[in-house]
Design goal:
about 500 residues; 5-stranded antiparallel sheet; 16 helices; 21 strands; globular; NA-bd_OB-fold; RNR_Ribonuclease
Length: about 500
């Protein structure tokens, strides 16, 4: 799920980078005491990474030489841990998508010191001014990264699509590849918008649109909510509300298509690990339908859930309130491991995608992808999954849940810290906002037990308000209708702990 959208623009609301760095240093020190990973790696892990980075070619003798294929990467401009590279081409009956994924298993052997450290970390943690990498940067931003003009080992998915975007054939192998260009989302989108798009990116846009249509046909659903991002502005930083660019959506469709191909391969092979999500409970869907009607955005009976979400535009306050409510339906994501067909989960689908799916395209940044890629390779070759790999699969769901919880907590705490620090300079100011959620007003447990004695007590009513400028969200002790407006004042900010307190203007004026 995306973070709450925030935008704090200089000079108001911007924060000195050094101030944020010091605060995050303190946050990480506190988290380390609770067992959270640190930016630094143990000496023996660094030594193992250096050795692996220098010796990978010795293990790549069986890799095909695909350095003549003009792959390109597409990422944020600042990224250096490049997991994926693509080569797209039109064929007589559709399209050919070759998707190269960093061959991390060639550097990180099962049950090695690097593997043990990666299992302890689980995933790369992205913080406002730094990241805590899954692997030492010698590997993740060096030898294993699909950097331009660098020969690197990769798993290469070869996907054949017909003219409608349906996958008609899949193969997987290992190869040494060499990316030709490191493309950046913003520049690529600017080129497309100006009518001077990169030829392969124009083809990506075309294939992405077809795959999006396939997602709609499956009943898949996605939330059109902007991401929270940290931007540097000289020696200051700010949190920005950044909308996903169309080319990013197209790129995501290639990754999702590959993850679905991986899931299909593992299901047919009888061993692997899926990313699952149950359908939203009917009562929750019914509640959402009633909320849509109450907001004056009725959900037509002839539209499925995903199709309805695609009609919502977060720029409209009523739609924004609905999108925040819809987020509650995207719950229950988990990993399901199986080592034989009898262990397959009853429902193999990821409900938001409307299809079985696996994480398979980000092994530099997420632990489970490395195991999925290895498992898929054995299935593609018609081989049995080796005992050491089969033994590791059942361990991964708990590892990913535990490490994901730690990573999510660190990321949220760091972003909250930046937001509180920036808001500290805005105390006393008044803001307009839109009500996007409402809670409270129900009878307390004590009141239910003894209604007369407790006087029919109820829990306090609170509303969550999306401010317009700066667009931050805040819980306020007030009442109102979803999609309605509310004027609030920033009463106080506790940078070190409790956060920001907003009150209705009427309360602050009394």
């Amino acid at each position: 799920m995306p973070h709450r959208p925030v935008s704090l623009r200089a000079p108001k609301g911007s924060v000195a980078a050094s101030e944020i760095a010091a605060a995050i240093d303190a946050l990480l020190a506190e988290a380390a005491a609770d067992g959270a990973p640190s930016v630094e790696f143990p000496a023996e892990v660094l030594a193992a990474a250096e050795a692996a980075a220098g010796a990978w070619r010795e293990g790549a003798d069986a890799h095909e030489d695909a350095t003549d294929v003009p792959f390109v990467t597409l990422d944020p401009a600042s990224s250096t841990d490049l997991d994926q590279a693509m080569h797209l081409e039109r064929t007589a009956d559709g399209y050919r998508v070759r998707y190269a994924i960093a061959d991390v298993p060639l550097f990180v052997a099962l049950d090695s010191v690097l593997d043990a450290e990666a299992r302890r970390r689980g995933e790369t943690v992205y913080l406002p001014d730094r990241r805590i990498p899954l692997h030492p940067t010698t590997i993740s931003e060096g030898a294993a990264s699909l950097l331009p003009d660098q020969a690197a080992p990769a798993f290469v998915w070869d996907l054949r699509l017909d003219g409608s975007g349906t996958v008609t054939g899949t193969s997987l192998g290992r190869a040494v590849v060499r990316s030709r260009e490191k493309l950046a989302y913003d520049a690529v989108q600017d080129g497309i918008d100006a009518g001077d798009g990169h030829p392969m990116m124009l083809l990506l846009q075309e294939i992405g649109a077809l795959r999006t249509r396939k997602e709609a046909e499956r009943g898949g659903a996605s939330l059109n909510i902007p991401e929270q991002d940290v931007e540097a502005d000289g020696d200051r930083v700010r949190l920005a509300w950044r909308s996903i660019l169309p080319i990013e959506d197209a790129n995501a469709q290639i990754s999702l298509m590959t993850g679905m191909a991986a899931a299909d391969l593992m299901i047919r092979g009888g061993a692997g690990i899926l990313r699952t999500m149950p359908p939203a409970p009917e009562e929750n869907v019914g509640r959402f339908r009633r909320q849509a009607a109450a907001l004056g955005v009725p959900w037509s009976e002839d539209l499925d859930y995903g199709a309805f979400l695609r009609t919502l535009d977060w720029h409209d306050p009523r739609h924004l309130a609905l999108l925040n409510q819809a987020a509650s339906l995207f719950r229950g994501a988990a990993y399901a491991a199986f080592t034989h067909a009898g262990e397959l989960p009853e429902d193999t689908e990821q409900a938001a995608l409307g299809a079985p799916y696996a994480h398979a395209t980000a092994p530099l940044r997420r632990l489970v992808d490395r195991f999925v890629l290895l498992t898929c390779l054995h299935h593609a070759r018609g081989e049995e999954v080796p005992p050491a790999l089969a033994a590791a699969l059942p361990l991964l769901p708990e590892i990913m849940q535990t490490t994901g919880s730690v990573a999510g907590s660190l990321e949220r705490r760091a972003l909250d810290l930046v937001e509180r620090t920036a808001l500290a300079g805005l105390v006393g100011e008044t803001f307009e906002g839109t009500i996007i959620d409402r809670r409270g007003g129900e009878k307390t447990d004590d009141a239910k037990k003894d209604d007369e004695k407790k006087g029919g007590g109820t829990s306090p009513v609170r509303v969550e308000v999306q401010l317009l400028d700066p667009p931050v969200t805040a819980w306020v002790e007030a009442d109102g209708e979803l999609g309605g407006s509310l004027r609030v004042r920033l009463e106080s900010v506790d940078v070190a702990g409790a956060g920001a307190r907003f009150v209705p203007v009427e309360e602050s004026a009394s």
